[in-house]
Amino acid sequence: MKDNRRNFLKQTLSLSVGAALIPILNPLDTFASGPASAVDGQAPFTFTQIQLPYAYSALEPHIDAQTMEIHYSKHHAAYIKNVNDAIKAENLSFKNEADFFANASRLSAKARNNGGGAWNHNFFWESLQAAGAGNNQPEGKIKTALEKSFGSFDQFKEQFSAAALSRFGSGWVWLINDKGTLKIGSTANQDNPLFDNAELKGTPILALDVWEHAYYLKYQNKRNDYIAAWWNVVNWKQAAKRFS
Ligand code: MN
User: Fold this and answer.
1) Any idea what the CATH number is for the domain that residue 228 is in?
2) Are 184 and 175 in contact (CB under 8 A)?
């Protein structure tokens, strides 16, 4: 436990330092490669890995600490590094993440896939809260909207779980806001509903990672059990904030 915490701190500290260096280094690169890669003289947008808002073990027993540690410090960290490498190598100069994803169809596979992975996981970590933190049910405006779209909270859960179970291969399941209406859909690989060429488009409210790396250590082939456990750690306050 102590070791985990120390590793976690070390990890986030080194990531913060890495992220902090990017804006310092980029203007120099921009200067060297000419003004075409800068937006109004600003350093181009790069992705930053958020600090996990809870300990690796906080989602136990629903999502285990080892899965969280590998997922955050290996998989997610690699998406962040790889997309920022691509931004630099390809001289990409987007203003922000919305601008980046609005151009997804024109990006290289490396920039697109890792950019999606970088953003989706930040969004995923913030969609979750420590086990036993309470508020396991939506309240207020989002509750009303869920009932309007799906009949009831239970029916929403059923449909969302079914979408998560039937996503073939790797991908994500989303609850999105499509102009005031809540909808469920899924995307393949690391695509997300902000991509200009996504099958599903809208403002993300909740996301569930159904890549095997998200659950295989604890649940193996039983994706169904992972999905059922996931509902226990959904952060409905965060979802409501995104819907407001
Ligand atoms: Mn993942």
Assistant:
1) 3.55.40.20
2) yes
Domain membership of residue 10 (yes or no) is no
For residue 192, the Cα-to-chain-centroid distance in whole angstroms is 9
What's the whole-model pTM score? 0.83
For residue range 197-236, what is the model confidence (pLDDT) as tens digits? 998 999 999 999 999 999 999 999 999 999 999 999 999 9
Q: Give percent of the chain above pLDDT 70.
A: 83
**Quick one: tokens of 153?**
């909270």
Residue 60 DSSP symbol: T
Distance 188 CA to ligand 1 centre (A): 12
Residue 128 belongs to some domain of the structure: yes
Instruction: For residue 52, give the nearest of 240, 213, 233 by alpha carbon.
Output: 233
**What's the domain range around 193?**
63-244
Distance 35 CA to ligand 1 centre (A): 36
Domains: count for the chain: 1
Residues sharing a CB contact under 8 Å with residue 96, sequence separation 6 or more, in sequence order: 45
Q: How far away, in angstroms, is 66 Cα from ligand 1 center?
A: 13
Q: Which of 43, 51, 1 is CA-nearest to residue 23?
A: 43
Asked if residue 13 belongs to a domain, the reply is no
- The rounded Å distance from CA 182 to ligand 1 centre is 24
Cα–ligand 1 centroid distance for 54 (angstroms):
17
Residue 200 belongs to some domain of the structure: yes
